[in-house]
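Box 3.1 A note on notation
Throughout this textbook, protein chains are presented in two layers. The first layer is the amino acid sequence; the second is a token string describing backbone geometry. Keep the layers aligned when reading.
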Amino acid sequence: MADLPTVYVLDPYHPDAIARLTSTPNIRYVLPSDPAKASWHQHATALLVRSETKIRADDFQRAEKLKVIVKQGVGVDNIDLDAARSRGIVVCNTPALNSEAVAELTISLALAVARRVCELDRLIRQGQTVVRSEMLGRSLFRKTVGIVGMGNIGRVVARKWIGAMEGSIVAYDPFVADGAWSDIPHERVTELAELLRKADVVTLHVPLTEQTRGLIGREHLALMKKEAILINCARGGIVDEKALLEALQKRTIFGAALDAMDVEPPTTEAYGEGLLACPNVIMTPHVGASTVENQSRSGVAVVETLLAVLEGKDVPNRVV
């Protein structure tokens, strides 16, 4: 028993994932509700995490038995990959599994901003009379969406947009080879500025890296159409939030929806006098992947990946 691998689940996972883990013989496990979770540095062979938990260089230095971390979702910016690499610790994620759910939220937020759904709902809840002729929304039918990031999520957004809106696609991604998206009608641009000028909706689907931090700043927002909508269901830090606030307050763009922001989860302390005070803003607490179906499927995939690594198998979703 002393040599059995010990798996610590540091963040909440769907019951289907927990059931898969706890039904596996010859491992120990510590679940999120167990107070012993706090001692993972001393005993963990493997970690299951989500975005809530940050694994930094000092964590790796203290975790002498740690061999593998599997993170649910695509982004791994909450894990110090250089530190993991230097210690020979395997890091895996679950790419592509969140694509449908995140794309679904992207379309939902675009429509909600365009038709002023949340704005109207707030007014009604406050007991105010809504004069419909003064609260006109915008139609997204046959409008152009600019997709920044031509990965798994971006492709699904494009297909949904074409199917639901009969709309056009403008795509920007300098890291994807020519010929990508050959199965989807689109216009590919080589400059972000060109996309920003053309798009009625700009949606971001890139990881947070040194290259993408502050990707949408004041000068970029100034290029967008006055009636355009910005959607960020990717990562906080990609959008300069001060510049976005200025654009929204001045109504140089129609509105924005953020499922990812600098402060997560968003609070009234952080945003109450800023973005949350703008009627043309919707903020959600990074819930793009938060559907029952997706959490079950991706949670089980995390456990399957972990077990495969512990068995010495190669996995396609290894990051480090």
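Residues 6 and 28 are 5 Å apart (CA to CA). The first strand starts at residue 6 and ends at 9.
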